[in-house]
Amino acid sequence: MDFDKLTELLFVPGISGREEIIREKIIELLPKGIPYHVDDLGNLIVEVGQGEEMLGFAAHMDELGLLITGINPDGTLNFKKIGGIPDELLVGRHLDVINSSGESIDGVIGFLAPHLSRSAVKPEPTIDVGASSPEEVAELGIEVLDYAVFRKQVSILNDRFVAARALDDRFGCTVLLEFLKEALTMELNKKLLFVWTVQEEVGLVGAQAIASQYHPALFFPIDSFACCSKLTGSVKPGKGPVLRMSDSSSIASYDLGKRLLSLAKEMNIPLQLGVTGGGTDGIPFQRRGIKMVPLSLALQNLHSEVEYLAIEDYDNLLKLLTEIARNF
């Protein structure tokens, strides 16, 4: 794992529809001189290799966050959740409010003290940036349609696991960058399509646009696998990457899954099979008749501030990606 690169991407803000800052950071980290394209929606696209057939790979740039919807007379900010954020994770949180100039402003969502909560009606959560009027908010450069993300902290647990907000899907963005670097050293008889997509968390919007432009032979979205529960069974961090064979919105290609299992066994790469909830950027491609299997890492505590993955799983996912490029 390129931990420095992962951390660098984790700390860059970018909710669905506002991926401009994280996209610029990923462009900055692309191999020097490599051609790239940004489409009208903001998807970042790179193609490498030669040949008639194409394999597609994607990871989404957007993270969960809060869209500023209004400014109250007392200077607090109303917001709308962008993506699947549980309400219980909102109160008592530190935020980075990204203003109209791209600057980060400190903010918090308050919490009604337990000393008062028995008799008082709990207030609707708002964002407090220390302003006492709309005019003070304007002086901070904050406007309606600016956004906020949860303050990031990265923890390394027992030298084996990483816990942080936005591992979904900044780990995918990072491994795709590392995979691209490896692919440039290979003699390929095929094309590889690399896409960092937008607006996955609000309906796979960026992937739908890509699926209308490209028709790869096979497609592999790189995304999280929510574990661990009765539904997901024995899948957990530390036991290898996961083939996300079924979720709430799709069933992956059984034949392609078998091919991946066979390849992983041959290359001595541990690999898990799993069923979970949610959906991935592979769905728009599947609906156009393209075989796809999401390549995932098991993440505990998904969509929280302490998303949790195994470093060894990440390294094995990178190995699997390079073997797919060589052998498929």
Sequence-ordered SSE layout with sheet pairings:
Elements: H1 3-10, H2 20-29, E1 37-38, E2 44-49, E3 54-60, E4 65-71, E5 77-82, E6 93-98, E7 104-109, E8 127-128, H3 134-139, E9 147-150, E10 155-157, E11 161-164, H4 167-183, E12 191-197, H5 205-213, E13 218-226, E14 242-246, H6 254-266, E15 272-275, H7 283-286, E16 291-292, E17 295-299, E18 307-310, H8 311-327
Parallel strand pairs: 3-12, 3-13, 13-16, 13-17, 14-15
Antiparallel strand pairs: 1-2, 2-12, 4-5, 4-9, 6-7, 6-9, 7-8, 10-11, 11-18, 14-17
Helix pairs in contact: 1-4, 4-8
Structure description:
- The chain is α/β, with parallel strands linked by helices and 328 residues long.
- It has two domains: 3-63 and 165-327, 3-Layer(aba) Sandwich (Aminopeptidase), CATH 3.40.630.10; 65-150, Peptidase M42, domain 2 (Elongation Factor Tu (Ef-tu), domain 3).
- The chain contains eight helices and 18 strands.
- Strands 1, 2, 3, 12, 13, 14, 15, 16 and 17 form a nine-stranded mixed beta sheet that branches. A six-stranded antiparallel beta sheet has the order 5-4-9-6-7-8, with no helix packed on it. A three-stranded antiparallel beta sheet has the order 10-11-18.
- Helix 4 (167-183) crosses helix 8 (311-327).
- It starts with a helix and ends with a helix.
